[in-house]
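Archive entry. Fields below.
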Amino acid sequence: MKIDFVLNEEKVSVEVEHSNRLLDVLRDDLHQISVKEGCGEGECGSCSVLMNGKLVNSCLIAIASVDGCHILTLEGYRKTKRFEAIRKGFEVSGSVQCGFCTPGFVLAAEALLSENPDPSALEVMKGIEGNLCRCTGYQMIVAGILEAKEIGKGLW
Amino acid sequence: MVRSFKPASLLEALHIRKDNDVMVYGGGSDVMIKYRSWSGTPAQFPKDVLYIGHLEELKSIDISDSEIAIGATVSYAQFLQDERIPIEYKRPIEQIGSVAIRNIGTFAGNICNASPAGDTLPMLYALNAKVIVMSTVGKREFAIENFITGPGSTCLKNDEILTHIIIPNKTYSHSYYCKVGTRKANAISKVSVFAIADVFKHQVTDIRIAIGSCGPTVIRLKDVEAKIIGSKMSDLDLMIESVLMMVDDKIVPIDDVRSTKIYRSKVALNLIEAFLIKELRQ
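PREDICTED_STRUCTURE:
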C-alpha cells in the first residue's frame, strides 16, 4: 500500500506492505541508516526515532500507522543546533564508544530535554531507561546529556 | 498477504469488524512482537488487520466526579501527563516498559492481550474496573475480572472492539505497588502486587489487593480482604500469619522462563506482608 508521511521535514511516499516495520522502511527504502536494529522487540532502543515529536521504537510500529505522521531520524536531527549541543556534550564526556546505540541515545536525549530542559541525573537515567549500551556503562552517557543541557541552555 | 483497514471513524471500524475477520491493532507494542518475522520483512499477522490507533474518538480521558473513562487509544504517556488523575493510579503505569513503549502502549491493548503479567491489570482488578466493548448492535459492559477468562483469552467477540476502560475517580488513604522484574525498565514482571486501602481512626474500612504473574490470570484476594476489613490496625500483626497462609493457598505460580514457582510465592507473600505491616502504618 502507498504510505505518505513527513520524514525530516520532507514529504515522502513509499509503496510497501502495511505490516512492514517502520524500522525497515526507514533503513531499506529511505536509507536512514542511523536507525539501527538491535533486539527487534522494543527492549534496546537502538531503532528509536521521533514520531510526531515523541520517542518510539521503530521496530514496533507497522508502517500503516505512520501514514500522515512526522518522523524525525538522526539524519534530520543532526542539522539542528540542539544536535550540536548534544554532540559536544557526548564528545567531552566520552559518551560514544562503538557508536551503535548512539543515534537512539541522542534522540532519547532530545525527547527528554524537549519535555524537561533541566533534568537531574536521575531524570536523565529515567529518560534513557529504554536504551541499552554495552560499552560505556551509562555513566558517560548520563554525563554527556547533563553536559549538553548546559551547552545548549535556551535551545530547549 | 493479509489486507489492512484504516477506518475514519469508530462506526466504520465496527462495521469492518462485523463484515470481516480482522485483528485489532492499537499501539502495536504487543502484536508487532508477537507476529515479528525475519529482519527486513513485514510482521506476519495471522489475519487482516484493523488499525484503530489513529481514531480520535477513542483518544480522550473523560473525568466526572465519580469516574474516569479511558479511551482505547489513550497511550500510557497521555494518562501519565493528565494532571486530573490521582497519583496512586500513575505509579504502576510509570513503571511500564520505557519512555518509547509508554508513548504507544495502551490500557486496551494490555487488557486484550490478557497476559497474567499485564502491568495495568493488578491495578484494574483492585479498582473493580469496568470494560466497555462495542459492536454495530450496541455495547456490553464487563467487570475486568469477568472479561479476562484466561491467559490470552477474553470475552471479546469477533465483531466487537474494546472502546473504554472505566475506573473510579477516588483517592485512598493508602496505596501500594511493587513490580519485581529482571531490569527496572522494559521488564515483564515476575511478580507484581497492587493494593489500596482506607484506614480511618486506626480501623481498616476498605482494602483491595491484586497479584500479577502468580496464576493464569491476575488474582484478586477477596477473602483476604473480607477478613481484614473492619480490623483494628493493632490486630494486623496477630493476623498476618493466617492472612499469608490464605494468600499462599490462593496463588498458583508456575516455573517459566522468567522465574520459578518458589521464588514467586516467596516474593508475593513478602510484598503483601510489606504492605500490611509497613505501608499501612504510614
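CURATOR_NOTE: Chain A has six helices and five strands.
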